[in-house]
Amino acid sequence: MRSVFRLSLRNLASNRLRFALTAFSVLLGVSFVVASFVLTDGLLKTFDNIVEDANADIDAQVRAKSDFEEVAFEDRPIDQSLVEVVSAVDGVGEVSPGTESGKIVPVKANGDPVETAGAPILSFNWTGSSLSPLTLVVGEAPDGAGEFAIDESSADREDLVVGETYDIIGTEGREPFELVGLTRFGDENALAGAVLMSFTLDELQRIDGTEGLLQWINVSAAPDVEDAVLIERLEEALPEDIEAVKGDVIIEEDQDEFSTVVNIFGNILLAFALVAVFVSTFIISNTFNILLGQRVRQLALLRALGASAGQVRFSAVLEALIIGVVASVLGLGGGVLLAVGLRELMNVLGFSLPSIDIILSTRTIIVAALVGIGVTLGASLSPARRAASVPPVAAMRAGFRFGSGEGTRRTIIAIVLAVLGIAGMGYGLFGGSDDTALLLLALGLGAVLVFVAVSMFAPLFSSPSASFLGSPLEHVPRSKITGHMARENAARNNKRTASTAAGLMIGLALIAMASVVASSLKESFRAELGSTLVADYLITPATDGGQFSNQLAAEVAALPEFSEVSAVRYGAARIDGDEKGVVGTDFTVLTDLLDVDVLDGDPVASADPGFVLLTQEAADDNGVEVGDPLMVEFAATGSQILTVGAIYDNPFLIAHYLVDLSGWDANFDAQNDNVIAAKAASGVELADADAALTSLEDAFPQLEFDTRDEFREALEGELDSLLVIINVFLGLAIIIALLGITNTMALSVLERTQEIGLMRAIGMTRRQTRSLIRFEAAVVSLFGALLGVLVGLAFGWIAVIAIPESLIDRIAIPVGTLVFYVVLATIAGLIAASFPARRASRLNVLDAIAHM
Amino acid sequence: MTEVTQNQAESHEPTGPSAATMAASAVGLTKVYGEGNTQVVALDHVDIGFEAGKLTAIMGPSGSGKSTLLHCMAGLDNVSEGEVHVGETKISTLSDKELTLLRRERMGFIFQAFNLVPTLTAEENILLPLLLGGREPDSEWKDRVVDTLALRDRLAHRPDELSGGQQQRVAVARALVTRPDIIFADEPTGNLDSISGQEVLGFLRRAVDDWHQTVVMVTHDPGAAGYADVVVFLRDGRQVGRLEEPTADLVLDRIRALEV
Ligand SMILES: Nc1ncnc2c1ncn2[C@@H]1O[C@H](COP(=O)(O)OP(=O)(O)O)[C@@H](O)[C@H]1O
Ligand SMILES: [Mg+2]
Predict the structure, then answer these.
(1) Is the minimum CB–CB distance between A838 and chain B shorter than 8 Å?
(2) DSSP secondary structure of A449-513
(3) Which residues, chain by chain, have CB under 5 Å from ion ligand 2?
(4) How far does the CA of residue A754 sit from the closest CA of chain B (Å)?
């Protein structure tokens, strides 16, 4: 066994570069996995700490009772008079009333409103209380009308200077406020890009339009009073619909909210990491196989000298084990660095994340080891088995070759895997289980099996394909023969070409799938928008989730250039036990603005608080028809029996349940508008309508006034940015795949040392030698990319079928984009081969000949 | 002792024909491998010329520097000292690219084994130096070479479908197809059975006689050397003898004498 170990080490040492590249591809995958864990753990811990610090001194919080999970995006308000009730309770220490608003936007000196990359802009009342997480770091606290403070990072980012006056847009319009101080949230002001403003309670309520209302009252217990006792006494004093909860509960709720977001983020990172790991598995396996082929004679000699098949197998597995261990250990370090790097990157992109604690949990270490060692070991099993199958006589006989991978057994296995994979994907997409994690797992494993199956089929057609794809190379001007030889080389070893291409295949397949889904989504959306949206204008907040003055809708409606105008509000209500999205809109103009395709009933006649409109789908769910009663439970008013006023077909841009704005006002807490849809009066040119809106646009700089086309472009732009981010992350898998191409080409160069030396001797220039290697890599890459696009088209097609009709109702293939990716991948392959190409061109001709 | 004196006398003799008729020549050619303790002097101030239109054989014991001499003359290896001329061209100052073009256009090569590119057909292998230069073959000449070497019905085959003798004939055809100034052959028959070997030697002989080619061939087979016009003997990196109009027996005698 000692000697086997020494043999493994010796092999590793003599193929240092090869193994280094192999280990590097594993290392990248492991690093990405580790980074996603480290980042997630670190962020969770940090946010937990922030939440704990922020709420540390709160012993109890008084707030509206609500068993709704998501009510109109904000807590329900409570009456300010409760402060006196609370203060009067025996055992209460400090009392800190609070409210929060997401409707207030500051305007910068240059006249532009502050915008974020998606994080909220929040305003709080300044309490100065120890119960608040905010502390003052510069200037003074807001202490009267016309004063505000803002957090130090936002001031820095948006160039807001203490002492200067800025316009603040509230729900009641725009007015100047003096910036009197800068605040800090917790120790680091790590707000992940959010903006925090502070006002006095009175001012905040005034500009928020919520006079006399609070969202919570924080309370500390007087000395010697138990929290539980305090809660009990508070509950006793408070009305039925108001509750008092322990500080711990608030901390837990907030932490849960953060961890949900962080975990989603972490899982997405992990998914990309696993793709990278998967690709690196192919590369390792391929490298082992090639090295094995080059060592046949050595192995045979060992066997001839008496090494057992088991020993040979063991030495091959041992090599993999050593690489796996090294890659895992380095991957742990790499992962930590990558986590820090990713965090920096996010900060540059405007999400100011807190500096995270580096937490290498046992789980992270175990997973890193499992991934690194597991993947290398797994990839080495089949090469090791083949190594052990080398007959001793091969030492004496030239030309022993392993099978070319076309065996019947292999084909059968591939078919079985393909069937299992497709079944897994089918279950994941159409299985309809409630367990999302299970569905995703089935989908992922299914895709993995399909990829493995495709890579097993690939040797059946890789040689003719490469030969076909390489045929244009024969027309390379000046050096037809180089192109010809590159083509022949690419077609030379079907198995090697297939497994080298497999890495790119996977990366390109995922990218192609994402592109197909995205462009189908875009096309569907565009078509829907064309046929459904009748309104000429949509007015939306520039910062997601923002709301604005209800006054604006009336002002637009007052303009003679516009005929139909409706505000739109988003909320939720419980129907048959489940929370559903409910949209409020003006039923009298609904169909003039949005062609919802009314099937039965009359929306205009239902413009009354007692009616609800629903889609056919929702009607079927509830088993109701027009005229039937439907029980709807609102957070503010409890269960109400509404009448089904109309049933429509198309929930595009809105929801499955609609109430009239009058119904909204009756059943929801006061809320501002989320969107305004407006239609120009007949005969009014769009340009004139545009001009009429100009003064409003100036008054509401925080809003986007979009025409239908602008609205579509804005949404498509968001989709495109998302696609770019996905592709960037998939880029890692592509990089690993390219590393695999570099590795394979380097091994091929080594293997063909004699041949290259011979050609150099009889007159091949260095440049031609380089082209030879690069062209070959380009052909292999092109093959992998095309295969990937084909698989990706199939995946995309399945995904489009699986996604509900209401989102995607057609498939669109972005031919141009796909061609672009294929070309890009081919060029990348060409570049990946630069290093082996250089090596080939610098081979010492004599050394090469001496090989003979 | 007498032999040694004779050798010295010979090597100082002005070597017959003038430099103008030399296809390649070297003056003071020295090649040292390695440094210090491990230093090996593979060639030690060799003055030599290869006459145009002749078949020269280089003989000598293993390790005497035969291959090194060939490589230095062909610009495949750089020299430590001395000068090498191919025709009128001094090759020690040429760049890699210039050397490559020189080899492609003015030299032919036949190695002992692994002479052919496995992915190319016999025909493509033959034409490879021309194809690399983007040149059109002179088809009349190519046909003549192919027919002379009896390769007509093997042109579409790949090397692994050819016998050792056929492979070597393809290599000879490749060396001839550019009508080079000089052909270097390093033990071209070393891997062949005697009949195939004699065939190949016969072709080299004909190339010189009929087509006025110049061939320099390393061999350790006295029989092969018998095909040559001149035999040059090397030992320990020095030229130790020269024999014109050799026969196998004369060569054998000389080898015995040198190795005493
Ligand atoms: N690349 C090299 N490195 C070191 N020594 C070499 C190298 N090539 C040849 N030699 C040495 O130079 C001498 C001449 O070698 P070579 O020309 O191959 O001999 P021959 O072809 O006559 O057998 C030998 O001693 C050999 O060991
Ligand atoms: Mg030799």
Answers:
(1) no
(2) HHHHHHHHHHHHHHHHHHHHHTGGGGG-TT-HHHHHHHHHHHTT-HHHHHHHHHHHHHHHHHHHH
(3) B 67
(4) 8
How many domains is chain B partitioned into structurally? 1
Instruction: In whole angstroms, give the CA distance from residue A14 to residue A441.
Output: 41
Does A658 score more than 50 pLDDT? Answer: yes
Tell me whether residues A762 and B124 touch, CB distance under 8 A.
no
Closest CA to A303 of A392, A396, A399, A398: A392
A480 Cβ under 8 Å from any chain B Cβ: yes
Q: Is the per-residue pLDDT at B1 higher than 80?
A: no
Q: Do A480 and B131 touch (CB under 8 A)?
A: yes
Work out the mean pLDDT of chain A and round it to a whole number. 86
B222 C-alpha to center of ligand 1: Å?
A: 21
Would residue B1 count as lying in a domain? no
For residue B8, what pLDDT is reported?
A: 39
Question: Could you tell me which residues are beta bridge partners of residue A98?
Answer: A216
Q: Name the one residue in this structure whose structure tokens are 């230095």.
A: B72
Specify if B31 maps to a domain.
no
Query: What phi, psi does B23 have (nearest 5°)?
Result: -75, -35
B94 in contact with A, Cβ within 8 Å: no
Ligand 1 atom showing the smallest separation from residue B234 Cα? 22
Q: Is A489 on the interface with B (CB under 8 A)?
A: yes
CA gap B84, A782 in Å, rounded:
46
The predicted structure's pLDDT at residue A685: 86
Read off the pLDDT of residues B72-130 as tens digits, 9 standing for 90 and up: 999 888 899 999 999 889 998 899 899 999 999 999 999 888 889 989 999 999 999 99
Instruction: Write out pLDDT tens, residues A176-210.
Output: 999 999 998 877 777 777 889 999 999 999 998 88
pLDDT tens across A799-812, in order?
888 888 777 888 88
Give yes or no for a contact between B165 and B189, defined as CB atoms under 8 angstroms apart: no
Please give the single-letter amino acid code of residue B165: G
List domains and CATH numbers for chain A.
60-254 (no CATH), 443-534+709-852 (no CATH), 549-699 (2.40.70)
Complex confidence, ipTM: 0.87
Closest partner residue to B109 among A488, A762, A767, by Cβ? A762
Cα B70 to middle of ligand 1, angstroms: 11
CATH number at residue B59: 3.40.50.300
Question: A320 alpha carbon to ligand 2 midpoint, in Å?
Answer: 40
Token reading at A465: 């394909």
**Pocket residue to mutate for ligand 1, from B35, B39, B40, B186, most atoms within 8 A of Cβ:** B40
If pLDDT is split at 50, 70 and 90, which confidence band does A403 have?
low
Q: Is the pLDDT of residue A73 over 70?
A: no
Q: Would you state the pLDDT for residue A848? A: 67
Q: Is residue B131 part of a domain?
A: yes
CA-nearest residue for atom 1, ligand 1, is B33
Domain extent, residue B147, equals: 6-21+51-70+106-259
Q: Is the CB of B72 under 6 A from ligand 1?
A: no
Q: What is the pLDDT of residues A287-337, one digit of tens each?
A: 888 877 777 777 787 787 778 888 888 888 888 888 899 989 999 999 999
Task: Give me the percent of chain A exceeding a pLDDT of 70.
Answer: 95
**Ligand 1 pocket check: which of B67, B78, B220 to mutate, most ligand atoms within 8 Å of Cβ?**
B67
Q: How far apart are CA B158 and CA B170, in angstroms?
A: 11
Q: How many CB pairs under 8 A join A and B?
A: 78
Is A134 in contact with A124 (CB distance < 8 Å)? yes
